[in-house]
Amino acid sequence: RLNANGTVISGNEFVIGADNEIKGLSIFANGDIMGVGSIRDAKGRMNGWAVRLNKDLRIIWQQPYPRGAGEKFISGTTLQKNLFVVGGTALPVGDGNRAGWAMVLDGLSGNILWQRYFTGALHFNGRSVLASEDGMISFMMDGDAPEGMEEIDEKDAAHVRVLTLNPRGVMFGSDEYFHG
pLDDT for 13-47, tens place per residue? Predict the structure, then answer.
């Protein structure tokens, strides 16, 4: 932990025992820190992973979120008091395209309150998640054509998609941006 001058005021090391990667950090109003990323399980599959630390950098809880053939969280942020929204990418088991993956976690326990997968003709990769003060969620994904896709309609061309979700995960909007 650093102070405003960049001086280290506290630190901690964690030996998880598995390959892991933290992709995003966010701070709760009380100073607790939430980290999101991925962790490799005993079968060699990557799982979404979240960890909550108190302001003294001690682990409150950590949890893997296994789905499909593999997945990772890329971004996370506080949603409302003790709620946390995360976004990432999930790989299907067998055939199918990558899916954007968003979920809301109970920040006190790590339990999943809801999750959504966003799929289509393209591979979707979760890139960023933001939350506004009123609880609305913006989830940004990019879409790219799967290998071997011969003809691509304009609606299926590589693009960025921003989804707007309410705090319960109901989609209010989907805006696509092409040739940006």
Answer: 655 666 778 888 988 888 999 999 999 888 888 99
Q: How distant, in Å, are the alpha carbons of 3, 140, 145 from that of 126?
A: 32, 6, 15
Q: Where is 137: in which H helix or E strand? A: strand 137-144
pTM of structure: 0.83
Q: Which two tokens stand for residue 151?
A: 């003809």
Q: Residue 104, exposed/middle/buried by CB under 10 A (0-12, 13-18, 19+)?
A: buried
**In this structure, what token pair is assigned to residue 42?**
């005993």
**Phi and psi for 95 in degrees, rounded to 5?**
-75, 155
The residue-averaged pLDDT of 135-154 equals 77
Beta partners for 83? Answer: 106
Q: Is 156 a residue whose pLDDT tops 90?
A: no
φ/ψ of residue 155, rounded to 5:
-70, -15
Task: Write the DSSP string, 51-104.
Answer: EEE-TT--EEEEEEE--TTEEEEEEEEE-STTEEEEEEEEEPSSSS--EEEEEE
What separation in angstroms does the CA of 62 have from each of 27, 79, 113, 115?
Answer: 15, 18, 16, 18
